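sorry for the late reply, my laptop died twice this morning and i had to redo everyting from scratch. anyway the thing you sent over, i finally got around to it. pasting the sequence first so we're on the same page, its 165 residues, then the predicted structure underneath. double check i copied it right bc i was rushing
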Amino acid sequence: MNPRLVIAVAILALTAAVMAAILLDLVNFGFILGPYRFSHWMSWIGSLWVAVYVPIYHVLKQRMSRIKVLIDVHCFGFLIAFLLISIHFAGQMSRPALPDLGEGIALYVVMLSLVTTGLVQRFGTASLVKRKHYTPRFNRALHISLITAFYIIIVVHAATGIGLI
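ok and here's the structure:
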């Protein structure tokens, strides 16, 4: 079995376990750290990684000869970012007075879709999908398009969070 796939699945399993622990109130990442909740810091770190690394990755992959390292940083960095963002999302979902989650849910769906299409693309599981219209080329286009949705929604989500919208 591919060791990189095992690591990716382990990170996803950890993400699911942490989310379950938060939702079951076994662990709390909602404590205040400075002016914000710890879970907010986690989501900002994860979102910043995605927002900053995507253009860097695009430029570097055209100029680097060691593309395997770059892909690993991309793949595992995004999975860790997804874990951090999931901490925030689960924390928001577990709050007694559920906040307005409009663009937050949309953003999480986009992140989940990015992770799914990225794993399909990275580990070649697109060949396992038997639908004739879902091809590796379509998967790549969808993956890249989801990044555009991420940028739009994260700006709206952040602007709403700080009261600009």
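The helical segments are 3-23, 38-63, 67-93, 102-123, 136-161.
thats about all i looked at so far, will dig more tmrw
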